[in-house]
Design a protein that fits this description.
seven-stranded mixed sheet; Chloramphenicol Acetyltransferase; about 425 residues; 19 strands; alpha+beta; OB fold (Dihydrolipoamide Acetyltransferase, E2P); Dihydrolipoamide Transferase; elongated
Length: about 425
């Protein structure tokens, strides 16, 4: 009895994925609901679990393959589980005798008993040659090299034909994997004159991940399809910083989380969005869709690229709720565990480049949204307060917007309202 591993439904508008990596090898035992393969979509990575307990009997799509929803990835065989366990027990009984008789470990791809006999003669004179059946040899694990990796068939072929010591090869692939090109370079194979190109240093060519391709595509679309414009302002963070300092201990002991800056910015943006609905709208053909809900997207940098999860119904959340939700979603994003639904439905975006030390930037729209707020680092700067020069913690703000739907007056007034609410945060509690 066997069960198929199929590509699951991937979410709205996503019809295909890339096989990022198999978490199990063919012949490995697996438990029901244990992840066996990782898929990469335009937005998130997801793990596909085993439908039953058994053995991964077949892999139909290799790493890097593009697969559609419903496609066959592989099969789990239930009948092979007992057989595999029995053979592994046989191997465990054989391994001690190999060590005792000083017989070399055998390569599972060389199944000819004569070869086994010859190898054992080379390594021991006083012991009887060891002859293994093909059935048991199939179950001997692939001996991994010093790089702790399994060689690809192409690399194996070159290593065998040219008698290369794989332990002396420095791999250039992911996690130090030895690639075919590494062996060709080591053997001195040079490209033909027509294939050569000028190179000024060491280079590495890696295919863009599906997520990175999508990021590039969407950002380019934003530039091509929207009338992008950015307006700037500055905000004195003194009052927010004092409020956080005075209430941080009580807030943390009561809610179990620190009071950060993001909750103030989310609250200030929601107030401004309610007063300037065009910033919370989007264009669809020759129509404008005004949204009477406030789902604030916020940019999160991860090892694989930028993702923009959504804080839903931000207008209904308290300061503590906003901080808790942002922390939980950010951790899921960095661990690659976001669900597709958590990346959809945003109406306005906040991007905090200040955490990386950015002084000023012009953020780009997250289509189909019409506005994005850029936060930056907080720097002590001299400003004039009541006719006197004082040093205050200042943050530059940038609002990029689609000029097709948002006029200059609206954008400037929107950003000015955010500034006013941040400089006097009591207004956020009074909803004025």
């Amino acid at each position: 009895m066997s069960e198929k591993i199929l590509v699951p439904a991937l979410g709205e508008s996503i019809t295909e994925a890339t096989v990022a990596k198999w978490l199990k090898n063919a012949g490995d035992p697996v438990e029901a609901d244990e992840p066996v393969v990782e898929l990469e979509t335009d937005k998130v990575n997801l793990e596909v679990p085993s439908p039953i307990t058994g053995v991964l009997s077949e892999i139909n799509e290799k790493d890097g393959s593009v697969v559609a929803v419903g496609a066959l990835l592989g099969s789990i065989s239930q009948n092979s589980a007992k057989t595999s366990a029995k053979k592994i027990e046989e191997i465990k009984k054989i391994e001690p005798s190999l060590k005792e008789n000083n017989v070399i470990k055998l390569d599972p791809i060389k199944k000819d008993p004569k070869i086994f006999e010859e190898k054992s003669k080379e390594n021991t004179q006083d012991t009887k040659p060891l002859v293994l059946t093909e059935e048991v040899a199939d179950e001997i694990p692939v001996v991994k090299q010093s790089q702790n990796q399994t060689l690809s068939p192409a690399v194996r072929k070159i290593v065998t034909e040219n008698q290369i010591d794989i332990n002396s090869v420095q791999g250039s692939g992911k996690d130090g994997r030895v690639l075919k090109g590494d062996l060709i370079s080591m053997m001195g194979a040079n490209p033909k004159p027509s294939e050569r190109k000028i190179q000024y240093g060491q280079e590495e060519r890696i295919k863009m991940s599906r997520l990175r391709q999508t990021i590039a595509k969407r950002l380019k679309q934003a530039q091509e399809n929207a009338a992008l414009l950015t307006t700037f302002n500055e905000v004195d963070m003194t009052n927010i910083m004092e409020m956080r300092k005075e209430n941080q201990q009580d807030f943390q002991s009561r809610y179990g989380i620190k009071l950060g800056f993001m909750s103030f910015f989310v609250k200030a943006c929601v107030v401004a969005l309610k007063n300037f609905p065009a910033v919370n709208a989007e264009i669809d053909g020759d129509e404008i869709i005004y949204k009477n809900y406030y789902n604030v997207s916020f940019a999160v940098g991860t090892d694989k690229g930028l993702v923009v999860p959504v804080l839903r119904n931000a207008d209904e959340l308290s300061f503590a709720d906003i901080e808790k939700n942002i922390k939980a979603i950010s951790e899921k994003a960095k661990d690659g565990k976001l669900a597709i639904e958590e990346l959809q439905g945003g109406t306005f975006t906040i991007s905090n480049g200040g955490v990386y030390g950015s002084m000023l930037s012009t953020p780009i729209l997250n289509l189909p949204q019409s506005g994005v707020l850029g936060m930056h680092n907080i720097v002590d700067r001299p400003i004039v307060v009541d006719g006197e020069i004082k040093i205050r913690p200042i943050m530059y703000l940038a609002l990029s917007y689609d000029h097709r739907i948002i006029d200059g007056k609206e954008s400037v007034s929107f950003l000015k309202m955010i500034k006013e609410n941040l400089e006097d945060p009591r207004r956020l509690f009074l909803d004025i």
